Amino acid sequence: MDLTVKSENNVAFMVEGIKGKLKVVAAQSIKADHFDIEKYEDLLDMYEVVMSKQHFSISEIEALCDELRLLKK
C-alpha cells in the first residue's frame, strides 16, 4: 500500500492500524470516515509513530487518542 497517496482507502487503512496497535477500548467509535482528508499528513505522521513502537504507556495511549480526536472532522 502506498501511503504517500492521499485517499480514503489509505485513511481507513491507517485508522484501522492505529486502533489495532493501541488496542483502544472504544475502537468501534473510531471510524475512518470521521477523518478529514485535508489532515492526511497529520494522520500519516501519527500512524508512523504508532507503528514504530512496540509498547505504549497509558498516558501515551491517552495522548494519542486525544490527538485522534483533534484530527476528526
Automatic annotation (TrEMBL):
<dbReference type="InterPro" id="IPR009507">
    <property type="entry name" value="UPF0435"/>
</dbReference>
<protein>
    <submittedName>
        <fullName>DUF1128 domain-containing protein</fullName>
    </submittedName>
</protein>
<dbReference type="Pfam" id="PF06569">
    <property type="entry name" value="DUF1128"/>
</dbReference>
